[in-house]
Design a protein that fits this description.
By secondary structure, this protein is of the alpha+beta class. The protein has two domains: 207 residues, 2-Layer Sandwich (Alpha-Beta Plaits), CATH 3.30.70; 58 residues, no CATH class. 43% of the residues lie in helices and 26% in strands. The chain contains nine helices and nine strands. Strands 1, 2, 3, 4, 5, 6, 7, 8 and 9 form a nine-stranded mixed β-sheet that branches. Helix 1 crosses helix 2 and helix 2 runs antiparallel to helix 3.
Length: 274
């Protein structure tokens, strides 16, 4: 057995409702479907040069570079859950960890060849535990390690947002947590959980103009254009509508005959005012 301390990006990936899924479809069909999920996930782990440490209701992974861990998480959330129809949550932490390399004798009996020990694994697990479906959360250490950087693998429109400060059970210092994603829903602050207490932070992350989807942009543009057209129509036709002679000349009197009684009533009200 070999022990060495390393600084790694620790990724905890959890399949939400996997037990309920197995009960719903049966063990055999669930096993086939989850193996399909694992093939997709492992291909991304290989692509971003990560290492699979453990597999249960998800994955425990490690990456040498934090940007690879974040890109893996983002691309996984965009591509894998929509194909397997199972939601997932992912927590990422960057910190010192003890890497345990087991002896060949123990691996022959089923022990994992590499294990991770240390508080960094617990922090990554707590971070993952407060994730909502489809969300990727980073600790402050992971955020500082990547410094908000992106590379050619990072999905377009990716945005980082601080979602608040949390106290993790079993961890001495409060943790500042960040969300990363390309949709406003993926950036919303998660609430407290059984082992994590939210201490403070923004109640809601608001959408920025450049982050709006094309549909939102088009709807915003249409409303602005409609308002301009309405104001122009009022400025052009209002003088004609309120003038009886102008209405008669332009053949509009039979459409706006009701305007005169309203104007007379308004004038009477104004005359009574002190």
């Amino acid at each position: 057995m070999e022990l060495r301390e390393r600084k790694l990006a620790i990724v905890l990936l959890d399949l939400i409702g996997s037990t309920r899924f197995v009960q719903k479809v049966g063990a055999l069909k669930a096993a086939q479907w989850l193996q399909y999920h694992d093939r997709l996930a492992r291909s991304l782990v290989y692509k971003f040069e990560g290492r699979e440490i453990d597999r249960s209701d998800g994955f425990l992974l490690s990456f040498d570079r934090p940007i690879d861990a974040v890109n893996f998480a983002l691309i996984y959330q965009q591509t894998v859950p929509p194909r397997v129809k199972i939601d997932c949550r992912i927590g990422v932490h960057w910190g010192s960890i003890i890497e345990v390399k087991q002896s060949e004798l123990f691996t022959m009996t089923g022990a994992k060849s590499i294990e991770l020990e240390g508080v960094s694994k617990n922090i990554a697990a707590r971070t993952m535990s407060i994730c909502q479906a489809g969300q990727v959360l980073l600790t402050k250490e992971a955020m500082e390690a990547i410094k908000g950087r992106t590379n050619h693998w990072t999905p377009k429109g990716t945005r980082y947002a601080c979602v608040g400060e949390y106290r993790f059970k079993g961890v001495r210092e409060p943790q500042i947590i960040y969300a990363v994603g390309s949709t406003i829903e993926s950036l919303q602050p998660p609430p407290s959980s059984e082992k994590v207490k939210r201490l403070g932070g923004p109640k809601k992350i608001k959408s920025r103009m450049r982050d709006r989807k094309v549909r939102e942009w088009l709807w915003w543009f249409v409303k602005k254009v409609a308002l301009v057209i309405l104001l122009w129509l009022i400025s052009v036709f209002a003088p004609i509508i309120i003038n009886p002679r102008a209405r008669l000349i332009n053949g509009l009197d039979h459409w706006f005959y009701w305007v005169d009684p309203i104007l007379i009533t308004l004038q009477a009200i104004l005359e009574r005012l002190p």
